[in-house]
Design brief:
homodimer; 454 residues; alpha/beta; Rossmann fold; 7-stranded mixed β-sheet; 4-stranded parallel β-sheet; 19 helices
Chain lengths: 454, 454
């Protein structure tokens, strides 16, 4: 009864990404200009993004070619393995079949290079010299630093202050790849100075860091901005995960009943889920699939947020997008899954949740760490704290199968390893972590500050 | 010009290990009993090791079957990738072709599970309940903890004190896998207490930790001892690396001129080199190959040690083996490549060095960290500090090719990633690390204490 690996040969590395916009039953609500509240034009986005990514953001084409320089770098660690977790199944004594796609084999240990590489590539070929970005847990910052290094671009990373201090090793990795790392909120931007004036002890948030990174990018035509999640083109690039998983499940002669991913901005979830969900929307699935998004109880965007137009950042520099949001001024507690601390959610995922196509739930962190250790003790891989949310849900669904005496096929995304997160595990095992619940009053206040035209 | 991955399909995962003892031009000198100085018998080793491993230790059989429960676990991450480092070649502007075998994809991030898994397996089937061991950098301890978890064995790890404090995250990982970790020298053993009485501030050494682990194992018939390097059976298990690499170089239609590995106890070096060296000894190589062992200048066993009978531990509990040694009382400075701090060397490697079949060199740590960053900046993977010694040598050989205008094919073992070693990189980049050279007087003193019958 051992764990089985499904290795896809390199000839089966997908040649295209999958764009779910081609298969949506109703189109995405338009993105609005922050001042005029009118639908934005490509020209509005040009200061921040290269043409190719702006086109991908709105493209309705179902499959989009992966450029060969990107493909050649993907090949360094892709296709990633798909595993059948038979040791975990045995430990849980469940009739369920549990599969996981493992993205921790990338050089930075997570799924983030899947989009960092093409983003750096498209910027490079359009003459950009420098990229700015934000990072929470540091996985995205490391990945953009890596990609910038491959394509000879300067990279400046605004790192959420709580993670900057909690995760010095992630910072060291970015610096090893040649990036400059700044704790956010910082004194280097107007947005950062404003926050610090009001809250000198601010531990930061992704919304603040995004505002800082955008402010810098907007000042210089050779500097653009890169986002690690949320946007359509980011989710698009991650679909290489699900496209591979479809082929690998064919090798296993199996079809999923349930597909699970953790959600912060939504990119690893979308990466695994969208290719399956697209097939389902086109009526090509053999059986109905439940798609399950799992978020932290301390930042419950999908389960406690409002579906409304909001800014992507705290400084109100981004366009307005319709999404599930806790309000752009919401700053979650400094819990350990730093990659899941965003106030908003990818508009594509929010839209699909509104259409009733995705189920959402929120879990407190202690039960997620417990699940991570259960997983490690049978599968041997210690997951990142973010990924533990998906592990928790997969285990709970498998235990439900046991209770009901039904075998279901469960697939989840193990989006990264926890080798950079050992302090969180030390704190958990020492009993130092608590379940920081969301504060309903703070969310209500943040939501009250949403743009008023809604 | 991108890095190329040679992926071996799972059908090509070797079914056997390769035993170089079958091909040695002259046999290994016998292992001697610590008291009688007579060749030991299998019965002498029974308190410490299971029968199957004692048999492998002396076997003259060329190929030894990998048991299927071991094979099934290997399959979780093996075959590991072989890469052609074309981005590094380009950065160095060298005519050399550089290949590296990457063992960092295992659950613990190094090559160590290759032997931890079979060791735990053989102990389990012979009824053992508990394993004791030592660990330097923590890679071996993590791997035995992982293996113990898979086969339901208790694991107790004596961790060299300097690493115990430098690497709390490795310790946390062992504990996450359910192992008990004790800083060595400790008060729990007579050997540890004796050292502490004499040197209360001892930072420990592998030799001391081995003595402690052996003492505990010898006291209880259900407890055995596991060693992470040095012994013949450990090197045997690692040959899966080289056997895969042979197949992968065939895919690349290439043959190596130079094969490089770093050496502490010798296991990752042997794992890559022995299958190639064996073919060479049998006259089956197409062209002559240089085999190069690289050790740290601060613990220069092969380049400054004596080829003599010595104990494997400081407490003189192990049998006497003929090897290159700095003397069992030698305690190297607490430099960062904790996995390379052993006073001795695998007898098989020592023997082959004596036969003139392996070239040896020693490098100070700063130049190795510099090489590691050069490697990371082109290949994207940040190596473990141990592996940086092999990277340094590979880069130097590639630069020599450039100087001489000759293209050679260089293969090296990238035995682990550096995700647990970021503090070392932070210290290096902050200019806090120094080149701690060996102290000739200390070595002379330690060598003076070698068993006198030599």
């Amino acid at each position: 009864m051992n764990t089985i690996k499904y290795t896809l040969s390199e000839d089966h590395l997908p040649k295209t990404w999958y764009n779910i916009q081609a298969d949506l039953p109703t189109p995405l609500p338009p993105v609005l200009h922050p001042q005029t509240h009118q639908p934005i034009t490509p020209a509005d986005l040009e200061p921040l993004f290269p043409q190719a990514l702006i086109e991908q953001e709105v493209s309705q084409q179902r499959y989009i070619d992966i450029p060969s320089p990107v493909y050649d770098i993907y090949r360094q660690w892709r296709p990633t393995p798909l595993y059948r977790a038979r040791r975990l199944e045995k430990a849980l004594d469940t009739p369920a079949k549990i599969y996981y796609k493992y993205e921790g084999v990338s050089p930075t240990g997570s799924h983030k290079p899947n989009t960092a590489i093409p983003q750096a590539y498209y910027n490079k070929i359009e003459g950009v010299k420098r990229l700015t970005t934000e990072t929470g847990a540091g996985q995205w910052g490391c990945s953009l630093a890596l990609a910038g290094m491959f394509f000879d671009l300067d990279v400046e990373v605004y790192m959420v202050k709580v993670s900057y201090h909690q995760k010095p090793y992630r910072r060291a990795m970015m610096e090893s790849y040649g990036a400059k790392v700044i704790a956010s909120p910082s004194e280097t931007t107007a947005a950062g100075r404003e926050i610090l004036a009001q809250y000198p002890d601010s531990t930061g948030s992704l919304g603040i860091a995004i505002g800082e990174a955008i402010e810098i990018a907007a000042q210089d035509s050779k500097t653009k901005y890169a986002l690690g999640s949320v946007l359509n083109h980011v989710l698009l690039h991650q679909t290489v995960i699900g496209l591979e998983a479809i082929e690998q499940l064919k090798m296993a002669e199996d079809e999923p009943d349930i597909i699970i991913g953790c959600t912060g901005g939504g990119s690893n979830f979308a990466g695994l889920v969208f290719p399956f969900l697209g097939a389902s929307l086109r009526g090509e699935s053999q059986k109905p699939i439940k798609f399950m998004a799992v978020e932290p109880a301390a930042c419950p965007t999908l389960t406690r947020g409002k579906y409304a137009y909001d800014f992507g950042d705290t400084a109100h520099l981004t366009p307005l997008v319709k999404m599930h949001t806790l309000g752009n001024s919401f700053v979650p507690e400094g819990f350990h899954a730093g990659g899941l601390r965003y106030h908003g959610m990818a508009p594509l995922i929010s839209h699909l949740v509104q259409l009733g196509l995705i189920e959402c739930s929120a879990y407190p962190q202690l039960s997620c760490f417990a699940a991570g250790l259960t997983f490690a003790s049978s599968e041997g891989i210690l997951p990142a704290p973010e990924a533990n949310h998906a592990v928790r849900k997969a285990i709970d669904e498998a235990l439900l199968c046991k209770e009901e005496g039904i075998s279901r096929t469960i697939l989840f995304n193990l989006c990264g390893h926890g080798h950079f997160d050992m302090q969180a595990y030390i704190d958990y095992q020492a009993g130092k972590l608590q379940d920081s619940e969301y504060n309903p009053q703070e969310i209500a206040m943040a939501l009250a500050g949403l743009p008023s035209f809604e």
